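Box 3.1 — From sequence to structure: MFS transporter
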Amino acid sequence: MPLALLALAIGAFGIGTTEFVIMGLLPQIAGDYGVSVPTAGLLVTGYALGVVIGAPLMTVLGTRISRKTMLMLLMALFTVGNLLSAVAPSFPLMLAGRIVTSLAHGAFFGIGSVVAAELVAPQKKAGAIATMFTGLTVANIVGVPLGTFIGQAVGWRTTFTAVAALGLVGLLGIARLVPAVPRPEGAHLRRELTAFRNPQVLLAMAMTVLGFGGVFAAITYIAPMMTHVTGYSDGAVTWLLVLFGVGMFLGNLLGGRFADRHLMPMLYGTLGGLALVLALFTLTAHNEITAAATILLVGALGFATVPPLQKRVLDQAHGAPTLASAVNIGAFNLGNALAAWLGGIVISAGLGYTAPNWVGALLAAAALVLALWSAALERRERTPAPDPAAAPRIPAHH
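Predicted structure (token representation):
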């Protein structure tokens, strides 16, 4: 494994920690600023929307410089955003810090995916992308619980200071370990935009929004669902999120292992399995053991789709992968924001804390339909049209 992948994984670890740790610290932050918990929830929504906007924006700005330089600038931006969050005297400034941080997120994973894929042999590309995303999944097992613990014990500002320090380590790692690849010839915005004319790229992104939305419909409301429906204590929620992180880690490894060889079958299996497990979650949430097992499965099936979907976008965006790759990272976060909003609607409608699981199951099932449609389109494109000139001639009789 090239050491450069380790530097990318450290950056991914920092980004994953800052994105998810906020969910465990919302009550403290809300209390400190004197705002309600739903208002503090804007720190989650604002971050997700910042990723959606920042992914294409920062990538377009980065087409003029080398990918290594851009990755270093993104890590610097990430560090500054977390420092601003750590010292923000008011809630609006804290929100600004979150948005600054989120601008680095999409472009880092988008450009990082392209760099990771270029560091290895063609048949190992999905595995290399998965290695970088391992940083994001390990963040959920180690970074988020540790950050939550530090935030509850010493204060949430310490957590964000520690994450800023992680950003600095990632920046130095990229500076030392990632090879300086010259800016790709013809990496112009117009060329990068051509990828979006390909229906397969758009279908892969729609699968990302819906499939990942399925995961987040359930996970966003995991704390009230586990405490009110399942009967877990508040303290147990941290460990249930660790379990979700373990599922993500295993699913990401699985997705990276099989996506290089059986990409579409991998997507059918994971999206179909995810839809089924989320539908069953409405029943399994009523028992502590089955609820915990389901959380692990949701993490595993959800994250097993990440390397194949990211590779699908890279494969289809011929010669213009950078912007498409970053926009697909934005699509994951668009799925998060959409699912959290839809989940909130069904809870507000009085359908109960397990209702978001039905929303998730429907989103994952819709992603499966798109995967089948995408494969059918591809088969049709591969089948050559009959050539009238090649029609068999009837021999003339003399």
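Summary of the box: The chain has a mean pLDDT of 86.
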